[in-house]
Amino acid sequence: MDYFNCTIKAQVKQGPHSHLEIYRTAARLRQERSLQTVDIYFLETSSNLVSYVRYNPDDPHPVYLITINVGKQPVSDNHEVTILGTTFKSGMVILNTESKQFVGEDVALNEITLRPGQAFIFKLSKGAKGEL
Q1: What are the pLDDT digits (tens) for 15-40?
Q2: Which element (helix H / strand E) includes 84?
Q3: 29: phi then psi, degrees, rounded to nearest 5
């Protein structure tokens, strides 16, 4: 392992694409009330994908979708979901563990492709948008 590139100083130099920034983003997201509740809904997905939705039943918006490829091959699947009578067909990419690509963009959830070890966090919305 190249420990020199793992230091905080090296991570800061890498800017918004560093692991440090991914962890900072994830830590900020933990402040969201929807991610602090015990309400979790697991999606039926392809093997090697772990996908679930977190939301606050007292205030069901925002709704977050977390999906992780725990396998060794790329995986594509439909992540459209219905929660509390609302069908979510798209979502804004809040976190992409591979890069800043797509972060801040609304994407369609009907076919999400994840590389091995990749994870996304989406803030869900009702409309359909571009594909990821």
Answers
A1: 656 666 666 666 676 667 666 676 78
A2: none
A3: -65, -30
Which domains does the chain show, CATH number per domain?
A: 32-125 (2.60.40.1180)
Q: Of 68, 106, 65, 61, nearest to 85 (Cα)?
A: 61
The pLDDT confidence band at residue 130, using thresholds 50, 70 and 90, is very low
Q: What is the pTM assigned to this prediction?
A: 0.75
Return d(Cα 103, Cα 95) in angstroms, integer.
6
* DSSP three-state, residue 6: helix
Q: Is the pLDDT of residue 82 over 60?
A: yes
The residues near 94 (Cβ < 8 Å, ≥ 6 apart) are 25, 29, 64, 103, 121, 122, 123
Distance CA(112)–CA(131), nearest Å, equals 8
